[in-house]
């Protein structure tokens, strides 16, 4: 139990009950017993919890069998309604009652401006609270991106993250703040498209998981899609993190390679190629979300797009541009990642 939780007492429900805390607090129940007659859809014996002073307040949940560990409200008043059909006798409902100050529900939330840091679930390392929404906005200097990784993720188990406890990351690089993704069980490793992201944690009142830890750090924009020239006419391209770790999700990198002389073309060769699997039902790299595509720009400025390469393909062999310029586009989605790629390039005479 967090030290800033104020215990109000214990209830062993025999009838309807109103629980009240101070106005700047929220109510939290640690459920010890729910033992009622089993009946489909809780049609026999049940408790019904409302976020307010009476049964006309916002309904939080109805329980009859499955026992939640925690029940939290957004209000300083909580009304519990108990109903039985009187046919059989059971132990009923028992819980400890705590009040938590509203400022302690999401500690450390708000605006974060350090270039690296850690975000932990409320009440960490113990169970987080149910029925809460916590927001963290990370803003770093211009010309930097933010890489966000889950170090541990132990939330409520659910087939659809958006309907259960989950973490949502939004990219504030554009006015509509597109959502990068929602996560509840699968580890994540993503990077922003700009210098601001929002991380939102949403938990419902049905059930709770354990906790989570998220780490973030800044990356210079020129390091997101690294190009390492070894001379004016040669160099190396690698995915971010290669070879020491997996590339992040939400990448969209465009590498431009230009031969120094107009009588030269670009020769590109992959020395390592390891992208995340497309899935067993994806037959074409055009439909794979982690892929690489080369774009040839001829001397007449005509664009020719090579077919994308992905995990379904063998490692690409060397390719040649038809003119001085060759572009390479590497894009990834929010799901799984892999080691990435390494490619070398050099300029060669057209007539070779």
TrEMBL record:
UniProt keyword terms in alphabetical order: Disulfide bond, Repeat
InterPro entries: CUB_dom (IPR000859), Sperma_CUB_dom_sf (IPR035914)
Keyword Repeat: yes
Signal sequence region: none
SUPFAM superfamilies to which the protein is assigned, alphabetical: Spermadhesin, CUB domain
Keyword S-adenosyl-L-methionine set for record: no
UniProt xrefs under PANTHER family: CUB DOMAIN-CONTAINING PROTEIN, OVOCHYMASE-RELATED
Name of the molecule in the record: Uncharacterized protein
